[in-house]
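Project channel, design review

CF: Before we commit to the Chryseobacterium phosphatilyticum constructs, I'd like one complete example in the thread so the newer folks can see what an input/output pair looks like. Taking Arsenate reductase family protein.
RD: sounds good, go ahead.
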Amino acid sequence: MKKVFHLNTCDTCRKILAQFDLTGWELREIKKEPVTKEELAEMYKKTKSYEALFSKKSTQIKLRGLEVKSLTEKDFKELLLDHYTFLKRPVFLTDKEIFVGNDKNNVAALQAFFNGN
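CF: and here is what came back for Arsenate reductase family protein:
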């Protein structure tokens, strides 16, 4: 399994995806096809944290009046399943590894992964 969860409207996602040869990868546009419970469970197995998958920059946080510091793992899980913008993106998911988000360390780890494969 090789999947990339992303948003077509996200410039950062497009820029990161353009750096890699994604032949053989399933590209999932999460606005059109949201993450399923099973996929989220697979991501959780690799991160051991719903919070690690949660985008604290989502516009939905302010719209819903959420206090991120008071959220539990259960809250993060429910929110991730409720609205696509709560997923930190892009997410590159393989059978063995996961790369979440767009910070420099994650992109560097992704580059090392692609260079090694």
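RD: helpful, thanks. The longest helix spans residues 104-116.
CF: The chain has a mean pLDDT of 96.
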